[in-house]
Amino acid sequence: MDRRKAIRNMGLAMGYTVATPTLISLMQSCKSDPVMEWTPDFFSMEEGSVLTKLVDIILPKTDTPSASEVQVNLFIDRFINEVGDEEQQKFTKMAMGRFMEKATKAAGKEKAGDLSSEELEKTLASTLKISKEEETKNMEAVTTYNEAIAEGKEALLDDEVASHAFAHSLRGLTIMGYKTSEYVGEEVLAYLPVPGEYIGCGDLQELTGGKAWSL
Question: What gap in Å lies between CA 121 and CA 56, rounded to an integer?
Fold first, then answer.
């Protein structure tokens, strides 16, 4: 697995790009922060609570830790805060706000902070469950919206499109943060801290027992 290429081509709806050294630096800074005392840098406390529940819905605890257990929620918050420019950050806030409004309305709740993981999972699933054609149209709508904003023009974005952009981007960021965490890199993927012989065309099952390489 070429993780550097995967990071560049993640296809995040909100347009974030980041160099691999910066990404690794962010993950290293997250791993030393105590989870129970976490105060988000970018998100509000309510948004941070929702974010933590959502990343664990995307990657729940099984025989490996959940996303929040390897501090993916901290990574995403810090990633957006330190990598995103002002327009990207504003879009993130807007899109997450639309998603939370959709979830609270569907659950009949007044505040997003009162939403359970089960209620958030229903909204996340329904938001992501669209056809490839619809997804393409949504991405085009987001691009048009962001271009208009960049040019100082008035722009509108449908609530469903904004919610999907947030959910789609969050899923990509969660997977990226999880794969680049120290625990997953060393304990789940095939980890070789001191590379030896390079075998360009070998059987993955024979080389690593079927595991993707941790790069």
Answer: 10
pTM confidence score? 0.73
Q: Rounded to 5 degrees, what angle do the CA atoms 128, 134, 136 make? A: 100
Per-residue pLDDT reduced to its tens digit, 191-200: 445 555 555 5
CA distance 69 to 209: 25
Integer angstrom CA distances of residue 169 from 15, 41, 111, 165, 172: 9, 19, 23, 6, 5
CA 157 from chain centre, in angstroms, equals 21
Residue 56 confidence (pLDDT) above 70: yes
Residue 64 CA to residue 74 CA, distance in Å, equals: 18
For 3-30, the pLDDT digits (tens) are 333 333 334 444 454 444 555 555 555 5
Give the CA radius of gyration of the chain.
18
